[in-house]
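Annex B. Sample input.
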Amino acid sequence: MTKKISLVLFGGLMITLMAMFVMREQGVAVFSYGEITWELSLTHFYFAAIAVFILLYWLFRFIGKILRLPTQLKLQKQQKTRLEILNALDNTLIHAALHDWDSAIKTSTRHIKDSPIKKGQHSYTAYCANEIGHIDMRTTHVNQLRAIEGGASAANLLEAGFMLQDKKPEKALSLLEDESIEDVSVLNYYCQAFLQIKDTQAIEHTLPKLFLRTQKQPQKYQAIQNTCYQCLHYLIETYHVKTQAESLAELWKTYNKIIQIQPSLLEQFVHRLNQHKQDVLAEQIIVSSLQQNWNERLVQTFGLLQLDNVEQRIKIAQQWSIEHKDSASLLLTLGRLHKQLKHWGQAKNYLESSLSRQPLVATYAELTDLHEQLNEVADAHRCAKKGLYLATHD
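Annex B, continued. Sample output.
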């Protein structure tokens, strides 16, 4: 703006000088007031006008700075406070990473009344207080978070998580009543609450929604997948206890992806299928799973399946032995399969080879039974004794 005004004034000066040069007359500016007349050369008048303009310009600029001074001081104070808050939060994260919760609480509450991020500070302070068991402090900051505009939902979720940790699922469910189940965190807490109260029907209804959300963005919701694992563990054991073999098998249709990527869940599921004579499905799962990842427990279960295709399974197991020739579990399985066909010599060789790789209680049990089948009482007692010793000292 100043540059533009200076250019206009300079242009006016140049026009005045050119006019004087062309007209060859200096020109006069006349000012009169009543009987008083004041004459001033046009050049002097123009320079005086410029001087007055510059004087007024700096005068008004100075006055403006004085008038804006309180606002500027207030902004500087706010910026300083915000910088201190950010530094305090930075220190809070460091203290929390070191599990120094007391120091984290002190820094997270600094300037909290004037903070532009009150919700974050109250949330983190409540979390830190929960970590060291300061329940009253935790409750205070949760309530303060709820009182902030737009903070009620965050407070409900935060407190619901605390209630689940405190084993108060009914309280958690009451806090989640007004929250949208479109939020994956709400679904996660619902499933955890239903697990604690062992509400099978509610889990069966809610788990598919949570599972679908986690599958759309598996990396984002990797931590929440643990809730899916826990729910499936619960459903598998519930169907096992209630002998609901069909319900157990139905789980595979919906949750096969998550079951396959969790070894302990996969082992549990296949084991329960075998116990409830769902061996056709169990065989399919074992064969397809072992093509991707080798699993010693699944190999052992493969030899326990009560199916008529024993010779076919022997061929499959022999194919596996090309890459896993020293697997004690695979040798145990081959021994079991040959034992089913009453190939006593081959079964004995495989079982003894399995023991030479790794002594397993199951292998001693199979070998004991084999010796009994052959009426080799002394050898049966010897194997049973070793197996019992291994079982009681494992």
